[in-house]
Give the backbone structure.
Amino acid sequence: MQDMEDKDLETLFHQTRASDQRSATSFDRDWEAARSRLVPGRRASLRYAIAAACIIVIVIAVAVAVRVAGRRSTIPQQSARNQDLGQGLQGRPPGLSDDTTAARTPPLRGNSDSVSAPGGIGSPKRRVRHQYVRLATHEDRELLSAWRSPTEFLLKSPADDLLKVVPNIQDSMVRIDSR
Amino acid sequence: MESSELHAQLEALHPDSFGWALLCCARDVTEAESTLQAVYLKVLSGKAVFEGKSSLKTWLFGVIKKTAAERRRRKMLSRFRLVPLEDVIETTSSKTGRPRAPAEGHADASHSPDVGAYRNEILAMFRTELAALPRRQREVLHLVFYQDLTLAEAAEVMGVSIGSARIHYDRAKKRLKTRLIERGVTTNAGYGR
């Protein structure tokens, strides 16, 4: 008979099973090995928890440091700006006539909020703020007009004269110094 | 389920679990033993909890299959150094276990010297042909013939539908029979009936 039935397969599987079971490890040994690995597993999880806590603390510390550094960098800018404006108010700001500054600008010391309004009607505090804004915009405008790019010299070329002047047909490109 | 009751049932199922672990680990005895230890560790640490939705055997076999697959993946990643090598080594060589050779045929010779060499040869041939089958087909045949599970239970362990399991089962039987006949293993070959 050259055929094979399911029972034959079953027999082969059962023989394999019997052979495997003879080579099987004992349950107690595997169970105890697993139990002995249980404690290091807990330690490992504790280690992961500590590492995670450290990472969180470091992230929070970095965030706080960045925020504090940001505040420190903005405070000097603001104070410098306030000082400039204060000087502008006390002195003669460019673009404003003597009468306007003299009449409207009270002496400022630092922040505009520190200016007191002793019993005045019509809120001098508000008026000072108004001046503050006007002068600030004026100064900004002046600063912008005076600003030059630090790399402006790179845009200059030796041929700038030729490009900026309308050429004359009878004029020569070569200029000879007659002296 | 009480822990003592679970312990007793796991002990009773241990030989079958070992057989299934062997199949999942390409018949590497050391790897099968390590996989079983990893499974018991999961049970002890509460990572694998039996909720009674299926039989304990089906559930346990599912855990073994997943654990073996995890270990295979981990080993593969360790080859590319994506997982620390000690993780694999630690789980492979247990504290009490010693490295052992694969179980291909020699177990019979060492434990039962009365078994003939011819029968061992047939069994070795059978194992080779079984190992040559696609994974799903190999698993379904093992679960049905070796573990005496029903097709529905086998499908549950394999994580496929019963229809799919039936297709794998039919194809696997046909393929294995054809290959064994080609190699001269027939009902008259004298493998123990």
